[in-house]
Write a structure and sequence with these properties.
Elements: H1 19-23, E1 31-32, E2 42-43, E3 46-47, E4 54-62, H2 66-74, E5 88-91, E6 102-108, E7 118-129, E8 133-142, E9 145-157, E10 163-172, H3 174-177, H4 180-207
Antiparallel strand pairs: 1-4, 2-3, 4-10, 5-6, 6-7, 7-8, 8-9, 9-10
Helix pairs in contact: 2-4
């Protein structure tokens, strides 16, 4: 759960800068936002929180085999090696990622009205379809800050052998609900950054492999 936060954001959950509107109209290279919202993403019939006011959905096409993308995404302990905003990550169980698996990770939090400078997130896999989808949930906590998140990932092969990765996440909690536009902008940057890092890393591994 919880889109990885970028420390470069200079905003707060208490104020809504004009930049928020601009942020919603641009995306990193390769990442796209559906201008016509479709039904929420699901994994084995379960989706994000339907009542959450803070939500975001994005997708990206990765020029790499599905196996490479899947292995990278599910090897959660190694996320700090390819996602700079993830400072620590540990599995709370062993073996392949599966329903019931849990992992704990930390990331800096942008300036906000609370004293929190970082978040500790405990994500629990609720549903998983091998090579097709993952859904995890869990709390993100910091000093004076609490967010409950639901995060869904979908993976689908493209005709040219790549992978379309779609992701959707919702957040609830008193601090984010107090300023939905800013909380959504922060979530947006985190999810699009995650997709971008996943694309860069998977494609580098694919194209640098010896033939």
């Amino acid at each position: 759960m919880f889109g990885t936060l970028r420390t470069g954001i200079r905003t707060t959950l208490a104020t809504v800068p004009l930049a928020v509107g601009l942020l919603a109209t641009t995306a990193p290279a390769g990442a796209t936002v559906d201008p016509h919202p479709r039904p929420s993403l699901t994994c084995r019939g379960a989706g994000v929180d339907p009542d959450a006011r803070v939500r975001y959905r994005a997708e990206i096409v990765i020029d790499a085999p599905l196996r490479t993308v899947w292995n990278l995404q599910t090897d959660v302990e190694r996320r700090p090696s390819w996602q700079a905003p993830v400072t620590t990550a540990e599995r709370l169980d062993g073996g392949p990622l599966r329903p019931g698996s849990a992992f704990r990770w930390t990331t800096p939090v942008p300036p906000n009205p609370t004293p929190a400078t970082s978040l500790e997130i405990t994500s629990t896999v609720e549903q998983l379809g091998h090579h097709t989808c993952i859904r995890w949930t869990g709390p993100a906590t910091g000093e004076g800050l609490h967010i409950d998140g639901v995060h869904v990932w979908n993976f689908a092969r493209t005709r040219d052998g790549g992978v379309r990765v779609s992701t959707e996440e919702t957040h609830t909690g008193p601090q984010v609900d107090a300023d939905v536009p800013t909380a959504t902008a922060i979530l947006r940057q985190g999810l699009e950054g995650w997709l971008s890092d996943l694309k860069v890393t998977a494609e580098a591994r694919t194209h640098h492999q010896p033939h």
